[in-house]
Task: inverse folding
């Protein structure tokens, strides 16, 4: 018996095991929304903005390992998702984004709320298509979930015209799908892997660089086993942090623009860099001509297109991290790297990762207190200085996870992603670390958190500024703080050089704002208040808790490498 497209849509979600969909209504999805009302078993979450909606789906996907599913209407509903789609694309987050579209007879006529969303997102999706024939709807949805979750994960967009939603057609939803030209690599070339292993075995100063691909593949335990059996130190990218426990003796730290001194020195001085699951973006490499200048480079990645795109490597290996590491663990034999490890330890002693402790509350103190209060769970960050401090100081023992926006660096990501993570993992502690700037980009999602009963802890590091840009203005632009002060108003002088007694009050009052939604709120101004505030937040299970940490404006994220410079040229003080 034939059924309508909207009924098949719901049936497809049920067949895929979807338990949550993040959806915002509109004219071109009202039929699907009506069908979702009739079903049981799929939780329909109503965010307050489509950009936040897709970040919530990202947080859900990264907390659960499942595909995040979104539904928005045509026109502005669809275009509001573009930032989140790009974010998911760069960080390889599996999403299926369904957009409503005007009826096919109106496509191309500049109809109300008509946009070519497939064309707009073609470069930031793994696959995107407008369904033109009702009989293809089931196959297309099946393809979407398959493509989003296999190979290198990523977002897929399916645009469904309104007439397709109401037309009748086959009720069958396929169990599997064959897609011509799409064959994710599920094996590893043993010959290439043996070359890579031989290179590492012969090295005197070996180093493993673990990227986000290790975490995406769930290969952290195998990576740790491999490093232990080989006795080889490990550095990570920001997205790779947590792939080996941060308290492991072989873990050196993050490398890159704000990486640990010893980690960047190790990359610069190693003779073999065994990289797994990273695309070598500019925040990791700096000046490409000076990146790992003494090393032979192995690049193991599931995405063929990523290999040798930015850094020309000596041994390419196309493979899922789990598949390759399974073999590498079997082959691994211990190396004597004592002298190399002593050298790395000397670099750490020379310039340890440490902020001053003699002038009151510092970001490091906040992060350490979060570590003590929340030894397990999920830490979600927004983007900015607080993100870098979190990646430097938040500990990630086995079982604890960090979720952050790496490739696109999307301000406004943190709070909604934390809400999505809590919805996906309701029994897990979720802490959002954000800044006063990023928080205001999607702060309306407090309504979503309240309505969905998502009691997350939101740590706002308030320094009154858009801190990361302000830091660059301080170091490289003669302290010309143009449009970075969040207290600035029309009466302020044009050439302000920083905070002074004449500064206007900050807008908004985060405590009053949080309380107006029904959330708990605490303002922390000194070090001795931090632990108690976090402990209180952890006990508040009925609603979110906002903790506003008042930190100094002049705090800097160090080390820092100026964009385009070699990673060996670190600003340390």
Result:
């Amino acid at each position: 018996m034939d059924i309508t497209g909207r009924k098949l849509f719901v049936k497809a979600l049920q067949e895929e095991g979807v338990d949550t969909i993040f959806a915002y209504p509109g004219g071109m999805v009202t039929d699907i929304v009506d069908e979702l009302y009739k079903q049981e078993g799929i939780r329909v979450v109503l965010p307050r903005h489509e950009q936040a909606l897709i970040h919530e789906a990202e947080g859900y996907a990264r907390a659960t390992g499942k595909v995040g599913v979104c539904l928005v209407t045509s026109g502005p509903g669809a275009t509001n998702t573009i930032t989140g789609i790009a974010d998911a694309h760069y960080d390889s987050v599996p999403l299926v984004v369904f957009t409503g579209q005007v009826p096919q007879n109106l496509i191309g006529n500049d109809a109300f709320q008509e946009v070519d969303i497939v064309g707009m997102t073609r470069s930031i999706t793994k696959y995107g298509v407008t369904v033109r024939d009702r009989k293809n709807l089931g196959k297309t949805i099946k393809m979407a979930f398959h493509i989003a979750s296999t190979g290198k994960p990523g977002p897929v967009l399916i645009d469904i015209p309104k007439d397709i939603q109401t037309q009748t057609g086959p009720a069958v939803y396929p169990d599997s799908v064959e897609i011509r030209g799409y064959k994710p690599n599920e094996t590893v070339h043993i010959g290439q892997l043996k070359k890579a292993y031989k290179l590492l075995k012969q090295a005197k100063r070996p180093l493993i660089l673990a990227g986000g691909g290790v975490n995406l593949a769930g290969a952290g335990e195998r990576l740790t086993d491999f490093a232990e059996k080989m006795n080889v130190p490990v550095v990570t990218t920001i997205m790779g942090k947590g792939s080996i426990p941060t308290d492991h003796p072989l873990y050196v730290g993050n490398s890159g623009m704000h990486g640990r001194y010893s980690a960047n020195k190790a990359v610069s001085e190693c003779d073999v860099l065994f990289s797994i699951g990273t695309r070598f973006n500019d925040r990791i490499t700096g000046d490409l001509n000076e990146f790992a200048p003494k090393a032979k480079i192995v690049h193991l990645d599931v995405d063929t297109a990523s290999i040798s795109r930015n850094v020309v490597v000596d041994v390419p290996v196309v493979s899922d991290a789990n598949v390759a590491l399974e073999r590498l663990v079997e082959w691994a034999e211990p190396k004597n790297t004592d002298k190399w490890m002593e050298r790395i330890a000397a670099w750490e002693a020379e310039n340890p990762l440490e902020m001053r402790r003699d002038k009151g509350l510092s970001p490091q103190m906040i992060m350490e207190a979060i570590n003590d209060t929340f030894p397990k769970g999920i830490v979600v960050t927004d983007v900015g200085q607080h993100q870098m401090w979190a990646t430097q100081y938040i500990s990630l023992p086995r079982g604890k996870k960090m979720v952050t926006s790496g490739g696109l660096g999307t301000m406004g990501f943190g709070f909604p992603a934390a809400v999505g993570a809590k919805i996906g993992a309701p029994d897990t502690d979720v802490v959002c670390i954000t800044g006063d700037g990023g928080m205001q980009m999607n702060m309306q999602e407090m309504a979503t958190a309240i309505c969905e009963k998502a009691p997350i802890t939101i740590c706002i590091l308030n320094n009154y500024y858009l801190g990361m840009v302000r830091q660059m203005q301080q170091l490289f632009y003669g302290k010309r703080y143009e449009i970075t002060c969040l207290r600035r108003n029309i009466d302020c002088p044009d050439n302000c050089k920083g905070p002074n007694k004449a500064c206007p009050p900050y807008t908004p009052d985060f405590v009053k704002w949080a309380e107006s939604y029904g959330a708990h709120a605490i303002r922390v101004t000194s070090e001795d208040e931090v632990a108690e505030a976090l402990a209180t937040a952890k006990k508040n299970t009925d609603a979110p808790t906002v903790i506003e940490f008042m930190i100094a404006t002049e705090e800097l994220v160090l080390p820092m490498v100026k964009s385009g410079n070699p990673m060996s040229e670190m600003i340390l003080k």
